[in-house]
């Protein structure tokens, strides 16, 4: 049995995503740090599910318990990735596995895309995680007085 599996998120997952989105550590490491209202989340989540350029990967452990999610948003300007792990499962090495699985799946479908991650300079754990799975630092950027690392990953035919 595989250690991690994933599927596309659906509307039934909205409560779980709401919980993860308002997790204190997730909010602290997000560019937009304010808590998200349930009403705003439901509207946003529904719009994302309908958008063919948004790819929600919902991950489960061997016991089929949800452990986290990866979201990849395509746009004409940039394809951006985000990750969150349920607080119960942090520190267990799942982030790297989730990122590898999601990026491999996405880049096999869209081999000409470049995936971009924006990580706050203060979020050293995420920076190391993304670097360890093959993201390359391309530059530092500032957004609303927040210093960010910009990291990218491209298709690799070996995977």
Brief write-up:
Helix content is 33%, strand content 31%. It has 159 residues and is an alpha+beta fold.
Rg over CA atoms? 15 Å
User: Given the helix and strand composition, which structural class is it?
Assistant: alpha+beta
Find the count of extended strands (DSSP E, 2+ residues): 7
Strand order of the largest sheet: 1-2-3-4-5-7-6
Tally of helical runs: 5
**Amount of beta strand:** 25-35%
Distance between the termini: 21 Å
H-E string: EHHHEEEHEHEE
What helical percentage do the residues reach?
A: 25-40%
Largest sheet: 7 strands, mixed
Large-scale geometry: globular
Give start-end ranges of low-pLDDT stretches. Answer: none
Give the integer mean of the pLDDT values. Answer: 91
Labels describing this entry:
7 strands, alpha+beta, single chain, 5 helices, 33% helix, seven-stranded mixed sheet, 159 residues
Strand and helix layout:
Layout: E1 5-8, H1 14-21, H2 24-29, H3 38-50, E2 54-60, E3 66-73, E4 79-85, H4 94-109, E5 114-120, H5 124-132, E6 136-143, E7 146-154
Parallel strand pairs: 4-5
Antiparallel strand pairs: 1-2, 2-3, 3-4, 5-7, 6-7
How would you describe this structure to a colleague?
The protein has five helices and seven strands. By secondary structure, it is α+β, with helices and mostly antiparallel strands. Strands 1-2-3-4-5-7-6 form a seven-stranded mixed beta sheet, with helices on both faces.
